[in-house]
């Protein structure tokens, strides 16, 4: 069902912090499960977030269900991806949801666009629901032309910030549009940013100074036909600085996040650099928007990142699609990098038709949830696709499952040697290894078919230096357990 961009198995990085251990391979994590949602027509997921109950909320569009040509679609699942409820929102024309976030009251905020309601051809559409998806209020924003909302976030004052594009209130072509509302969706202010050509926003986030960071594209400014555009504003939407990134061709930012160092990570696509029609474009900046590094990832076809998030280890997870790798057509593309943007693993998932991932988030167990679109699987011409990956490195298991194996050592800390005991619930092929803090395997203690039950082995460390080591138990079904050991001579 999936193919790999990286075929060499390489032990990457051992990360130490807060007593947690994670080791990462070039081998990507396993797919724990996938789910499709849809009917006989075209349906697509655009945004996903893990909810406070451990389940997931997905926003997108449906042509299979609802009142009109296309309706906004909200789907709530449990932790296993099974549907708890679904809601459609819309009128007789086309209406879409592009972004969703769970709000502080346990409900949800959706942003998108509506042709059924509002003043113009399409208006920005904001929908607030309760925890069951029932509508509390809706708001439209726009003029006599078309205006789209692509990204929404609840702000610290319990209001909302929405980013998208406006044709109704632009200086030329289309412009970036930023809308700030109060908690009831009433407008506090709006700002348009742009020049004489087309400029647009795809992503917005409130920053730690309570201003905003916006990522998108500009054809009015920069070096090429279209450049990645990064806009930093104050709390009232007034511009503090703008930056463009790109070359002579088409480049675009799809997703932005403020990073833990107060800088920013931007992901999108570039046609100016790389060997294909388009490549994944990853840009890291400092707090002033100045470039720290850029990465171009892809092959000879068309590859694009549509979502990026900083992970708990300070690295990055990207989601998008690829025509360079995978089965055929476009496949879902997931990329994990380190904190410098170097690729740790890539994963493609798809069938014989077309698949995309529009949104990715790290889950509380260190795994990943991605949402998008599939034509290869499901009931209709296109379905919403929800993909759940295990954690990276430690990772080929779901930590919400009841543990069926363990490993521990006594004494710990130890001098000279320690007794490592381990248990497995059923007979299987296992490997028990010891790694140092640089991720190098220094000893294999067991490697073969092992009967169910408890076992033990002595680790003699007399030939090793003092320090921290990790005992790693790997089972044939990809279950992994680790134990931190401290060797003191």
From TrEMBL:
InterPro entries documented for this protein: Secre_tail
Pfam family, one: Por_Secre_tail
Limits of the Secretion system C-terminal sorting domain: 411-479
Protein name per the record: Secretion system C-terminal sorting domain-containing protein
Organism, as annotated: candidate division WOR_3 bacterium SM23_60
């Amino acid at each position: 069902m999936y193919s790999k961009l990286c075929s060499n198995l390489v032990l990457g990085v051992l990360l130490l912090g807060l007593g947690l251990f994670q080791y990462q391979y070039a081998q990507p994590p396993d797919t724990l499960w996938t789910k499709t949602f849809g009917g006989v027509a075209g349906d697509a997921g655009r945004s996903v977030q893990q909810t406070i109950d451990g389940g997931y909320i997905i926003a997108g569009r449906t042509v299979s269900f609802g009142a009109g040509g296309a309706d906004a679609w909200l789907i709530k699942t449990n932790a296993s991806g099974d549907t708890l409820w679904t809601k459609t929102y819309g009128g007789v024309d086309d209406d879409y949801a592009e972004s969703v976030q769970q709000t502080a009251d346990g409900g949800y905020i959706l942003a998108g666009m509506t042709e059924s309601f509002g003043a113009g051809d399409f208006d920005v559409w904001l929908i607030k629901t309760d925890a069951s998806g029932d509508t509390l209020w809706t708001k439209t924003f726009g003029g006599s032309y078309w205006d789209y909302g692509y990204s929404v976030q609840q702000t610290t004052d319990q209001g909302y910030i929405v980013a998208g594009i406006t044709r109704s209130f632009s200086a030329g072509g289309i412009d970036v549009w930023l809308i700030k509302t109060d908690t009831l969706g009433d407008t506090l202010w709006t700002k348009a940013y742009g020049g004489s050509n087309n400029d647009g926003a795809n992503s917005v986030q409130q920053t730690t100074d309570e201003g905003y960071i916006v990522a998108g594209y500009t054809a009015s400014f920069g070096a090429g036909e279209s450049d990645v555009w990064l806009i930093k504003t104050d709390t009232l939407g007034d511009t503090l600085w703008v930056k463009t990134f790109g070359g002579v061709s088409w480049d675009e930012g799809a997703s932005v996040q403020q990073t833990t160092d107060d800088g920013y990570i931007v992901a999108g696509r570039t046609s100016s650099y790389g060997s294909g029609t388009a490549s994944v474009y990853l840009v890291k900046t400092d707090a002033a928007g100045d470039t720290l590094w850029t990465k171009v990832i892809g092959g000879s076809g068309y590859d694009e990142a549509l979502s990026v998030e900083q992970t708990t280890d300070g690295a990055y997870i990207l989601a998008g699609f690829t025509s360079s790798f995978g089965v055929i057509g476009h496949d879902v593309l997931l990329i994990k990098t380190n904190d410098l943007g170097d690729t740790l693993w890539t994963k493609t998932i798809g069938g014989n038709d077309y698949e995309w991932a529009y949104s990715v988030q790290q889950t509380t167990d260190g795994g990943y949830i991605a949402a998008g679109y599939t034509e290869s699987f499901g009931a209709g011409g296109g379905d919403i696709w929800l993909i759940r990956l295990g954690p990276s490195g430690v990772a080929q298991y779901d930590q919400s499952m009841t543990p069926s194996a363990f490993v521990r050592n006594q004494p710990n800390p130890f001098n000279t040697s320690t007794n490592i005991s381990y248990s497995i619930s059923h007979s299987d092929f296992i490997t028990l290894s010891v790694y140092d803090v640089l991720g190098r395997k220094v000893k294999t203690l067991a490697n073969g078919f092992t009967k169910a039950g408890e076992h033990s082995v002595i680790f003699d460390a007399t030939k090793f230096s003092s320090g921290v080591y990790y005992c790693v138990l790997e089972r044939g079904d990809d279950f992994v357990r680790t134990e931190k050991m401290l060797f003191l001579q």
